[in-house]
Amino acid sequence: MVPEGWMHTSLGDLLEFKNGSNTEKANYGGGVPFINVSEVLKHESLTADLIPGSVKLSEAAAKAYRVKRGDILFNRTSETTEEVGFTSVYLDEEPVIFGGFVIRGRPKNGSLFPEFARYAMRQPQVRSEIIRRSQGAVRSNVGQGELSKVEITLPPLPEQRKIADILSTWDAAIEKTEALLATAKAQKRALMQSLLTGKRRFPEFEGQDWKEVRLGGCGRHPYWRYTCSERADLLAGWEQHLAFYCRSWSKAPQFFQGTNYGSRCGKKQREAATCGFRRHELQTYHRQARHHCGATLHE
User: Fold this and answer.
1) Contact at 8 Å (CB) between 105 and 98?
2) How many Å apart are CA 253 and CA 61, to the nearest integer?
3) How many CB atoms are located within 10 Å of the residue 272 CB?
4) In the chain, where the domains are located
5) 270 has a pLDDT exceeding 50
6) How many angstroms separate the Cα of 103 from the Cα of each of 17, 47, 100, 283?
7) Can you list the pairs that 250-253 forms with residues at least 24 positions away whose Cβ atoms lie under 8 Å?
8) Residue 210 — very low, low, confident or very high, per pLDDT cuts 50/70/90?
9) Could you tell me the CATH superfamily of domain 7-158?
């Protein structure tokens, strides 16, 4: 249903289409600013300062492929269907031209406000119809004929201006918010660097030394929280369990499978299920305990 006073039309009635310029490779890198696919994909609207590329063309070619304020640039080919037919509206007076993978749509009856077009051409309804009309298996392509058939509903020009003003105001607010957020993230990184390295201390903790530990000691089994004398008792108990079960079974029983006790490398323990491995594991624990607690395993 078309709102009262709005106009339902096709892009072919609104725009005059033209494919972009193709020239020799040697001509790129100097001359007139040159709009390529990447600029159309990145920006809803373009000004000359956002166009990094340039190309040398004859005066006649430069005139034929010139982009004027209000022209709409369409990406006519893409490796992904979602990006085919993306648009960018040129909102500058500086002379620029457009490349061969871009289609220019030039308004021909004054019924499209340029700042409004940047939003209208990327609205979901228009995007979905452009994608539906695209063709190609490996690369998606859309031509002038398909674009001409795309339908769009437009409000009167005064309402277009009002809508564009409101949306651009929100864009400006979002841009400022994102800049503030980026600054806050940078400040947080700097604060983390100073706090986590001890370069900056809270007054109540001044003079207190930091403790240096090895990461290998973090997240261990609760065994490593016990005192050395308690560890000795635990090791003795595990030895008795190991001897009992290995006498009873030809391989390690379910009691030992999938458990984590006594292991500093849980993955290996879960995968290994033989009594021989368990004995070796227990011996390893003895060596580690001696390293931490001394040869007697007592404090």
Assistant:
1) no
2) 84
3) 17
4) 7-158, 217-293
5) no
6) 7, 17, 8, 75
7) 251/275, 252/277, 252/278
8) confident
9) DNA methylase specificity domains (3.90.220.20)
